[in-house]
Specification:
By secondary structure, the protein is an all-alpha fold. It is built from 22 helices and three strands. Helix 1 crosses helix 5 and helix 2 runs antiparallel to helix 11.
């Protein structure tokens, strides 16, 4: 009786990745359009609320003097509208976007409701346009992700393919917002994809590329915060980048703690959560009375910080007021992103320390602080580095930014259990790991662990076994494990790929533990392989010429 394998497990790049990549190009263009519309909507609401004019230009709420009543009450009104939209529209619009996208991927099969694609940007524009100290990137991640998810739901696709299109939409929206393609792809890998594989990276890269091309037509191609008067930082500046790195890590830990301290405090209030964003808006309004420039998305302030044009009073005001109102109001569950505020807070920290550190060029230390706080708050050090470089085009600063971002990440990883993004996911009862490594099951083949014991491979036993699940000898243990899962079995016959009728052995579930034991051994077993040994040199003075010793 011929033996034919029931599961081959071969991956086809042509039949699976290329069609999804074609869809991702469409999603990328849509993500750029959504980002442009969101920025215009934020500009429109900001102009109407603070300047009583109709314009879509992106302006800062605090760029002119306003009455105390307007500064105090506008964020409250905006928060009240957001609360109503969340209660009677969709609760999914609450929060800063990225945790909601992560949750949709982890437990929702990468399915996002179509109404979220409309309500999320609208609520974020109202929140930010009325003075909320948030960024546009979180909402656009959720909106772009919803665009990709909706397209995927309309087609017959797998959950992994839906995830790819969801992340493609999220990353394309991010890329269009900040004109930062590489950082957006890194953010997708570090936060959303939970893998680094061709099946997802290629479509996401294609979507981001299309998004940036479309952004050039819609918003231009110049860097968002161009830095001029660049010089190459020397070894001293690179070493001193540890200071903004370590202090940025501490600031990231403190800000993250404040966010969830505020969230816990709001949960104890004897009022419905619908009212929380309005209460958070009151905190924003009070902060705005002290530092109006802390209101809104703050791109103008970030530009001043990164180009060395911010006065000390503005630096101090942003560092204190922005950190407090952003952290405390974000805990209210309103709609808004974390990235732009983190840019501003990190830039302010670096600018403040720059007054004490050697001058390199205007904005250098602000850039180091920005990269550090992003690396610490979001636990995405590579994203922090590349974002800073793409925002400013200060490519010479790679090494000091690496020092700052990684040192902040080190402190955050040592002292903080989870990031500001993953803590929210964990509080919803979900487990999320951010440590990616090679699956040990990928490092062994079936032929290396199978048994060839004749007593086990009795011919009569093989013929009576039903159903017979077969695997190839050169399949990895991960493919074998997938075969076990698909066919609900714990054993399979191993055959030769060149001659499928040739039985080579039997692999069982317990054999898969060999890879895990090997991985555990390599992680925990310590052994010295090279040692330095000294030998005593004995010389006989009667037989050795002293001139040759």
């Amino acid at each position: 009786m011929p033996l034919m394998p029931r599961h081959l497990g071969d991956f086809s790049l042509t039949t699976r990745v290329l069609p999804i990549t074609g869809l991702a190009l469409v999603v990328g263009a849509a993500g750029a359009g959504a980002a442009c519309l969101l920025l215009r909507l934020i500009g429109l609401i900001t102009n109407v609320v603070f300047y009583q004019r109709v314009s879509t230009a992106l302006v800062a709420p605090g760029a002119a003097r306003h009455s105390a009543a307007l500064i105090l009450l506008s964020p409250v009104a905006g928060g009240l509208i957001v609360g109503l939209m969340a209660r009677f529209g969709s609760e999914k619009i609450r929060g800063h976007g990225m945790p909601e996208a992560i949750e949709a991927i982890l437990v929702g099969g990468s399915r996002i409701q179509p109404r979220v694609a409309l309500l999320k940007p609208a609520s974020a524009a109202i929140s930010i346009g009325s003075g909320g100290p948030f960024g546009a990137e979180g909402p656009i991640i959720m909106t772009g992700g919803a665009v990709g998810s909706i397209l995927a739901q309309a087609l017959k696709l797998s959950a992994d393919e839906r995830k790819t299109l969801l992340v493609a939409g999220a990353a394309s929206g991010m890329a269009a917002t900040f004109n930062a393609p590489l950082a957006s792809v890194l953010l997708a890998v570090e936060l959303l994809l939970f893998e680094w594989r061709p099946r997802s990276l290629i479509p996401v890269g294609a979507a981001v590329s299309m998004s940036v091309v479309c952004r050039g037509w819609l918003l231009g191609t110049a860097p968002i915060f161009p830095v001029t008067d660049l010089v190459h930082p020397g070894p001293a500046a690179t070493t001193l980048a540890l200071l903004p790195g370590l202090t940025g890590g501490l600031l990231a830990i403190g800000a993250t703690g404040l966010v969830y301290l505020a969230e816990d405090a709001f949960k104890k209030l004897p009022v419905h959560w619908m009212w929380w964003p309005a209460l958070g808006g009151a905190i924003v309004g009070v902060g705005g009375l002290f530092e109006p420039r802390a209101l809104g998305v703050g791109y103008d302030v970030i530009d001043q910080l990164l180009t060395g044009r911010a006065a000390l009073s503005l630096v101090l005001g942003i560092l204190v007021v922005k950190t407090l109102i952003w952290s405390l109001s974000l805990g209210s569950g309103t709609s808004g992103g974390v990235l732009a505020p983190v840019f501003m807070i990190g830039g302010a920290l670096g600018a403040l320390e720059g007054d004490l550190l050697p001058h390199v060029f205007p904005g250098f230390w602000a850039m180091a602080g920005l990269a550090a706080v992003v690396g610490g708050v979001m636990r995405s050090p590579l994203t922090g580095i590349v974002f800073t470089l793409e925002l400013t085009h200060a490519w010479n600063d790679l090494t000091p930014l690496l020092v700052a971002s990684v040192s902040a990440y080190l402190l955050s990883a040592l002292l903080l259990k989870r990031s500001v993004l993953t803590e929210k996911v964990a509080r919803r009862g979900l487990h999320l790991t951010r440590e990616y490594s090679t699956d040990p099951l990928e490092t062994f083949f079936a032929r290396e662990v199978m048994t060839t014991d004749p007593a086990v491979l009795d011919a009569d036993d093989l013929l009576s076994r039903h159903p017979r699940t077969l695997v190839y000898a050169d399949q990895t243990l991960r493919e074998v494990a997938n075969t076990f899962a698909v066919h609900d079995t714990t054993r399979a016959l191993v055959v030769d790929r060149g001659d499928p009728e040739r039985l080579l052995g039997l692999v069982e579930l317990t054999h898969l533990l060999h890879a895990r034991r090997k991985d555990h051994h390599e992680e925990h077993h310590r052994q010295r392989h090279l040692t330095l040994r000294t030998r005593e040199l004995r010389i006989n003075p009667d037989t050795v010429d002293p001139d040759t010793v």
